[in-house]
Amino acid sequence: DIVMTQSPDSLAVSLGERATINCKSSQSVLYSSNNKNYLAWYQQKPGQPPKLLIYWASTRESGVPNRFRGSGSGTDFTLTISSLQAEDVAVYYCQQYYSTPKTFGQGTKLEIK
Amino acid sequence: QVQLQESGPGLARPSETLSVTCTVSGGSISSYYWSWIRQPPGKGLEWIGYISNSGSTDYNPSLKSRVSISVDTSKNQFSLKLTSVTAADTAVYYCARIRSEAAPFDAFDIWGQGTKVTVSS
């Protein structure tokens, strides 16, 4: 199984400031034949299902604000929120879909400082 | 737009079989791949398995001996059965759609609201 490890486990950022969440996979999720990273990011607010933010490591899902940016390749990935808004308080998960079983990171809880 | 809605028993007895169904509305289940994911209370997400529109399946090896996923295209539903449940199977069970119609290796773009199942005697 590919193990996904996120850091930090929790993060407190001031409104308007940048938030950065890291995700590391135990093996590469870059598929060489199409040069795509099989990595997604989700946002989960209390009492709600996860919401897809980013897929292919850096492609924003339709309707996701452009303050959310995904980057990275191979085994190291980052989700950056450029200017934190109050509605961004949530738990964020990375997930690999390169191979089964599909696996998620343990989650990063983002709060307002 | 496509929406997913889970339905389940709420409570399951230890050693019995847990059954949960996902109803797809606003689109046909005869396209795409469909998945089950669960989340124990206060914990992270665990992928259970998926089924294709043609009925092919793949399961998490950690659950493979106890899980089956089936599809009923006439009802636009797919279902999860988990046998020999224990308290460790207590979780919110989500159904989700995989983005790609062509292959199961893509992100989960549409999720149901989830159904909470508690395993207790």
Short structural summary:
Chain A has strands spanning 4-7, 10-13, 19-25, 30-31, 36-37, 39-44, 51-55, 59-60, 68-73, 76-81, 90-96, 103-104, 108-112. By secondary structure, chain A is an all-beta fold.
Please, could you describe this protein's structure?
The complex is a heterodimer of chains A (about 110) and B (about 120). Chain A is mainly beta and about 110 residues long. Chain A has strands spanning about 5, 10-15, 20-25, 30, 35, 40-45, 50-55, 60, 70-75, 75-80, 90-95, 105, 110. In chain A, the strands form three sheets. In chain A, strands 2, 6, 7, 8, 11, 12 and 13 form a seven-stranded mixed beta sheet that branches. In chain A, strands 1-3-10-9 form a four-stranded antiparallel beta sheet, with no helix packed on it. The model of chain A has no long low-confidence stretch (mean pLDDT about 95). Chain B is built from no helices and eleven strands. In chain B, strands 2, 4, 5, 6, 9, 10 and 11 form a seven-stranded mixed beta sheet that branches. Chain B has a four-stranded antiparallel beta sheet with strand order 1-3-8-7, with no helix packed on it. Chain B is globular. The interface of A and B includes residues 49, 61 and 102 of A.
Number of helices of chain B: 0
Roughly how much helix do the residues of chain A carry, as a percent range?
Answer: under 10%
- The Cα radius of gyration of chain B reads 13 Å
What level of helicity do the residues of chain B show?
Answer: under 10%
Distance between the termini of chain A: 36 Å
Structural class of chain A: mainly beta
Show the largest interface.
A-B, 24 and 21 residues
- Cα shape of chain B: globular
Q: What is the number of E strands of chain A?
A: 13
- Sequence of secondary-structure elements of chain A: EEEEEEEEEEEEE
N-to-C SSE string of chain B, H for helix and E for strand = EEEEEEEEEEE
Give the distance, in angstroms, between the N- and C-terminal Cα atoms of chain B.
Answer: 39 Å
